[in-house]
What does this fold into?
Amino acid sequence: MKLVKVFVVVIAFAFSGKAFAQELKFGHIDIQKVVAELPAKIEADKTLQSEATKLQNQLQVMQSELEKMYTDYVSQRDSLPDLIRATKEKEMQDKDQRLQQYSQMAQQEIQKKEQQLLAPIIEKVQKAIEEVGQEQGLIYIFDISSQVVVYHSEKSIDCGDLVKAKVNAQ
It folds into this structure.
């Protein structure tokens, strides 16, 4: 029985030795750089900038209206009856609150639009990374843009160009 146990251990070491004898291949990629250089990302940025400009223009119109309202109020304040003065002050407060709400909603809208535009791009990049990893026989592909990888050797394969080519081919 002891002989069988020793034989099993020897065989286990022999097989594990063969697994370690195979060359381990690793890759790395700067995902942020790859995504930033993709035509789809550049187009998404243009779309986002256009949306942000529209929202910013509307915000400026609202701010101008509030500033005019305030200027008119200051010029007439001393001559206005208390009731009208209080009403105008309330109107300005309400307009200022609406302006702040609009600003918050605009920021949320831009973030939502950005996520909407980037999700398919990120999905394509992830799929391309997986395909490159399989094609190149890699065990891992590390994202060096995340600052998590503290070292990569020259033997590590830079998969950036391969991934870009895959994404652009899709």
